[in-house]
């Protein structure tokens, strides 16, 4: 039997940051471990490994997902964006630039997940998705003002042990303004449904 295919292993192709990666994985391998241990994409961090901290956040088809709760085999056929793919060449995404300019980090361990989340938050907000603190959730009300409370709620799945939250909120606020004013968003993520902006834990 082909060692790549067995009752426990399958060959898969993952589309990550626009590049295809073929590998054979144990069916129990998480996307996080495939990224870090098999593909050397170590920008995505492992914190709790149980869906609690957000350090492992990536984008799947433009939506946030905690990669520690996503099986690699279930990610086949999806557009996966990791922190390594957020910038466009040498041009940082506005979220990355804002985190740098406003010191949105201390040790930096949570930062890749924070940035991936923030990229999606800005898209979700622009698409009119309400959050748990949105007052008027009627579709015709349009996007609510992206207040600090809105940002805190929408980013609440990303924990920061250094407590850099005040700067993170400011960085997301500024990045959203940059994107709104025409600053390019390098990641194609355009949610179109009026649905809750919750993190996707498993497929
Ligand atoms: S490592 Fe903490 S949510 Fe995935
Ligand atoms: S910057 Fe250290 S955990 Fe967030």
Automatic annotation (TrEMBL):
Positions of the 2Fe-2S ferredoxin-type domain: 10-86
SUPFAM superfamilies reported in the protein's UniProt record: 2Fe-2S ferredoxin-like (SSF54292), CO dehydrogenase ISP C-domain like (SSF47741)
Record keyword Plastid present: no
Record's keyword annotation contains Protein transport: no
UniProt superkingdom: Bacteria
Swiss-Prot/TrEMBL keywords: Iron, Metal-binding, Oxidoreductase
Annotated spans, Disordered: 180-203
PANTHER family with a match to the protein in the record: OXIDOREDUCTASE WITH IRON-SULFUR SUBUNIT, OXIDOREDUCTASE, IRON-SULPHUR BINDING SUBUNIT-RELATED-RELATED
Official protein name in the record: (2Fe-2S)-binding protein
Lineage, uppermost ranks: Bacteria, Bacillati, Actinomycetota, Actinomycetes, Kitasatosporales
